[in-house]
Amino acid sequence: MNIGATVQLLLRLIQNRAMKLAALPEDERDIHYDLIRRSCCEAAEHIGQNPDMAAITANDMVAFVRALVGIIEVGCRTNDGPSVDRPPPAQHFGSRENGMTRI
Questions:
Q1: Rounded distance, CA 62 to CA 56, Å?
Q2: What's the rounded Cα separation, in Å, for the pair 73 and 21?
Q3: Which of the pair, 80 or 89, is modelled with greater confidence?
Q4: Burial (CB count within 10 angstroms: exposed 0-12, middle 13-18, buried 19+), residue 3
Q5: pLDDT (mean) for 47-74
Q6: Which of 28, 54, 73, 79 could tie 49 with a disulfide, CB 3.0–4.6 Å?
């Protein structure tokens, strides 16, 4: 399997795990994040990272999964209907269509 296919597979696995975590109540997620951390740390050590770097890699992976879960949660809330907390769409100042009347 080439590196591109491997990365795509890994990202799909992470996305699937994040979707499942987002469906759980927040207080039930920590055990799953710990499992991700341990699995990632073991895998990093298995491919030759020293234990300190493996721990850093594992923590980075957990931070990425947590961020992805947060994105999924926000997306689910905004797809359920208008949200009061939702900021207005960003204005693109580099565009010709920036809200100003063309003369």
A1: 10
A2: 10
A3: 80
A4: exposed
A5: 95
A6: 54
In angstroms, rounded to a whole number, what is the distance separating the alpha carbons of residues 46 and 67?
26
Dist. CA 44–CA 60, nearest whole Å: 12
Residue 19 near residue 73 (C-beta atoms within 8 A): no
Check pLDDT > 50 for residue 62. Answer: yes
pTM (2 d.p.):
0.68
Please state, in angstroms and rounded to a whole number, the distance separating the CA atoms of residues 51 and 36: 16
CA 60 to chain centre: 11
pLDDT of residue 75: 86
